[in-house]
Amino acid sequence: MNNLADTVVVDPGFGGGDKQQQAGPAPQDASVVVPPPATKQSSALKKTSRYRSRSLSASSTDSFSSASYTGSSEDGDDVPPREKVQKNSRGSSDFCVRNIAAQHAFGRREIEIAEQEMPGIMALRKRAAEDKPLKDAKIVGCTHINAQTAVLIETLVELGASVRWAACNIYSTQNEVAAALAESGIPIFAWRGETEEDFWWCIDRCVNAENWQPNMILDDGGDATHLMLKKYPTMFKLVKGIVEESVTGVHRLYQLSKAGKLTVPAMNVNDSVTKTKFDNLYSCKESILDSLKRSTDVMFGGKQVVVCGYGDVGKGCAQALKGQGCIVYITEIDPICALQASMDGFRVVKLNEVIRNVDIVVTATGNKNVVVREHMDKMKSGCIVCNMGHSNTEIDVNGLRTPDLTWEKVRSQVDHIIWPEGKYIILLAEGRLVNLSCSSIPSFAVSITSATQALALIELFNAPPGRYKSDVYLLPKKMDEYVASLHLPTFDAHLTELSDEQAKYMGLNKAGPFKPNYYRY
């Protein structure tokens, strides 16, 4: 482990996956701002003018922005943020965003709008602000950066925490929101269209800060956890707890635990009821339609769609698309999920059985190489390909970066991949999370997840020594129920209370929890 701390992090992906945003090295000295190196191409690629490089695709110079309603995330500024000298109104330069001066005011309005639709996290902020349960907590955050997560970040600060934040996805950052956070004094390192090298540099700047020692991690995908573990192992051992909200990140934590490398307790928020049943299901149910419609203007009625994976994300996507008149197929490896899909009225197939005929392909498995070049060679012209899973490994985008294919950028996050015979497919967000790259997500659903994350941080930070060992834990059921109760007043919902006799008969506490941990909602 000590040797690992002295080496450059070249590919911090667990198991050597194909995650493109993990391909760049993390700099050894985070205090030195070094412009990213020029992208190199092989001689074979240089010979063809038809091949469009990844760095061009990642650019954020289009006037159209799918990350915000007004297009403010694309300011047309070609100067890399790392080459700029920027300060907020307080004189601080401890941040790196696209354009703080031009964008922070609009970003603040975006955050204020999100607050109105996030009753749970705002109620938690109001109830706990006086007690400051996160006083002395120093949190490294690596999540999507948009108006909704900004509400969470500012709530953590209100509860007493000191935070430093980076983005977990190079395409999902709302530049105006990042600018607003920087203006408010929060050290944030993120902008839309980062390179892979920028991505790791930003996380490193959050972890390795002068006179600041992190003791908590809030992660979405496991990138901050992995960088700290590999590059700063001594620092990692001093962390009191990790909170992880994605399938990918949780899988990585369980791998670390199984290998005996997890030296701190971690909370698996992804599998909490309030995350899986509301963020994963209901949020994706709405955002898949929004992202496809905004990016391609497609009409859904009569379209043939294959959804790869029938977990909560896949269920939400399939139900939404079916409701719009699509003919939906499901691919699954799990017989239980496959049976659920069949009972819900979907035909369960192998991808090769339908790939020649479908109009839209949606991946939602959390796995790698679900859709590969062989599949895309068989697709009909105009087929839309997108990913709703956290990681960008589900679609083999590298398999499309060959000299025989032409990449044509149509609009922000929308590429035509053209075959020599003229056939093309429509690839959204280069295989990254399409709903956060090409649209927005419901603030109310994020409020549920944010409240869950905040409570998990409070629980781990304030837990007495010995309560949690170096392992992965689920959020206590009582906290899940509390998060749900914070959101019920929005619907004017009134809970029925158990009588003493009823509570005794059921063997329950009148205040909950009302279900055992093994109960499946």
TrEMBL record:
Binding site for NAD(+): G311, D312, V313, G314, K315, G316, E332, N435
GO CC terms, sorted: cytosol
Catalytic activity reported: S-adenosyl-L-homocysteine + H2O = L-homocysteine + adenosine
Alphabetically ordered keywords of this record: Hydrolase, NAD, One-carbon metabolism
Enzyme class: hydrolase
Alphabetical list of CDD domains matching this protein: SAHH
InterPro entries reported in the protein's UniProt record: Adenosylhomocyst_ase-like_sf (IPR042172), Adenosylhomocysteinase-like (IPR000043), Ado_hCys_hydrolase_NAD-bd (IPR015878), NAD(P)-bd_dom_sf (IPR036291), S-Ado-L-homoCys_hydrolase_CS (IPR020082)
Cofactor binding summary note: Binds 1 NAD(+) per subunit.
GO BP term, example: S-adenosylmethionine cycle
Residues annotated as domain S-adenosyl-L-homocysteine hydrolase NAD binding: 280-441
Cofactor requirement: NAD(+)
GO molecular function: adenosylhomocysteinase activity
Key word Ribonucleoprotein present: no
Protein's pathway: Amino-acid biosynthesis; L-homocysteine biosynthesis; L-homocysteine from S-adenosyl-L-homocysteine: step 1/1
Region of interest (Disordered), residue spans: 1-91
Enzyme Commission code: 3.13.2.1
PROSITE patterns documented for this protein: ADOHCYASE_1, ADOHCYASE_2
Domain of life: Eukaryota
Low complexity bias spans: 54-73
Family: Belongs to the adenosylhomocysteinase family.
Name of protein: Adenosylhomocysteinase
Source organism per UniProt: Drosophila kikkawai
